[in-house]
Amino acid sequence: MAPSYPHRLIFVRHGQTAYNAENRLQGQRDVPLNGKGREQAGAVGRFLRDHWGAELVRLDTVGAFWASPLGRTRQTMELARVAMGLPPQPYRVDARLEELSFGDWEGLNWDEVEARDPEGIKARQASKWGFAPPHGESYADLVERVKPWLAERDGDAFVVAHGGVARAFMAILAGVAPSIAAEAEIWQGRALIFDKGAFSWVG
Fold it and tell me: CB-based contacts of 180: which residues, under 8 Å, 6+ apart?
């Protein structure tokens, strides 16, 4: 899909939460933004207003703002929109944009995961893209979840979602090798632009 995908996506990962600060796996748990996360949401909104303002107004006019339904993404979207000079709503949500599920590992930090499931950690290290925690999803599963959402798009879009979704987009839209996408740093407080089969960070 990467070379021929005809639309541009402006992607923002949600701001920091307490789980992020504590290096805990939050997955699909509904953890709110902390103070730093709210600041990050406003900062990325102001940057995009200053550099992409006309484009954002155009996307808002055609209803092309999308978010995961989890609270931290909706908070980020609304704070960013206000910082862009837009009203906090409207925008659309889609469950296919939710974070990767970490299943039984959600709520744990990596030390706790290793203590409880050392064999799972070894399996994940051997194949990070294809590994699914108990009752969870793999990045490969997530790719299949978001592909139909992408296929439905008929124009450019602004998306607030999660680190796992960003990695899936890297693989689908920019042709990044799964082994590289799985290890990619996904920043908070910056925007990721997917366009013409490539991606770049701004902000």
Answer: none
Which tokens hold the place of 200?
Answer: 């770049």
Which residues participate in catalysis according to the annotation?
Answer: 14, 99
In whole angstroms, what is the distance from residue 181 CA to residue 185 CA? 9
- Give, in degrees to the nearest 5, the angle at Cα 138 between 10 and 119: 140
Query: Rounded to two decimals, what is the model's pTM?
Result: 0.96
Instruction: Tell which residue, 66, 76, 60, 56, has the closest CA to residue 96.
Output: 66
What is residue 16's DSSP assignment? -
Please report the domains of the chain, with CATH numbers, ordered by start residue: 9-202 (3.40.50.1240)
Rounded to the nearest 10°, the torsion over CA 98, 162, 54, 61 is 10
DSSP per-residue string spanning 44-84: HHHHHHHHHHHHHHHHHHTT-EEE-SSHHHHHHHHHHHHHH
Query: What per-residue confidence (pLDDT) applies to 52?
Result: 95
Would you tell me how many other CB atoms lie within 10 Å of the CB of residue 129?
A: 19
* pLDDT tier, 1 (very low <50, low <70, confident <90, very high otherwise): very low
